[in-house]
Amino acid sequence: MPLSFCRKLCFSARGGPPKFHIDRAMSDIGHFPGALAELRLRVSDRIRQTLERAADLGFLGGMPIGEQIDHALGFVAAVESELKRPPHSVIDLGTGGGLPGLVLLSCWSVSRIDLLDANERRTAFLIEEVEGWRPDAQVEVVRGRAEEIGRDDRFRQQFEVLTSRSFGSPAVTAECGAPLVSVGGLMVVSEPPQTSDESRWPAAGLAHLGLSPLSSMRFDDRFGYQLLRKVGPTSDRYPRRVGVPAKRPLF
Residue 153 and residue 117: Cα distance in Å, rounded? Predict the structure, then answer.
């Protein structure tokens, strides 16, 4: 049974979300004048402080915090370029120390944000951090394996958007993520910025999960993302039991 912690939280957004109108042929979403500067203003000081503590505990890797926040803001830009609005609900798959999930929470204060991770220390840290925040927006810290959470009716096909920063290979991320996304929803997965190998996300393999490749995007000429659309329900066969998606990947 997964552990979860739910609390209402509030962050003041300085104005509404910037508008990103993207021609589908254009893959670079970071060169609109002021786009990154506008997005940075939507990250609260409280979030920055929490991420600094997470970095001190070794939960975020060695990249400077400012760059990691910019990378998380690329998820915001990618989602808003596709939806033209904040999402209703988001689950951050393998959130670790809270990236990109906490940055998404700061930018989308009215959205439901679930932070999913299997590690006890990281989720305990996130629960402790969010306990003291103000009760106006929704966040839930969920501790558990994605293969098990994806079969829980409280989470299965309940999210408009799924984000993934460094969860696993494309096949593992797709199999563990697809069951959590509602039909018509969106998966945004971090990718190496110069990757253009379409075989990493094959349409035939994704179709088994109800997914279809949508586009690849770059942000600020530094960060890459793959967007997938949930075009149909995920079969009850998926996700397979814990560890199997990695041992026997679908593609």
Answer: 18
Task: Give the helix ranges, DSSP H, for the chain.
Answer: 35-40, 45-56, 65-83, 101-107, 120-131, 146-149, 170-177, 203-207, 244-247
pTM (predicted TM-score): 0.89
* Cα dihedral value 165, 169, 170, 172, nearest 10: -100
Measured CA to CA in angstroms, residue 50 lies from 58, 129, 171 at distances of: 13, 7, 31
Give the per-residue pLDDT at 90.
98
pLDDT along the chain (251 residues), means of 10: 50 39 46 78 96 97 95 98 97 98 95 97 95 75 98 98 97 98 98 80 98 95 96 98 98 97
CATH number of 3-12+25-247: 3.40.50.150
Sketch the domain layout of the chain as residue ranges: 3-12+25-247
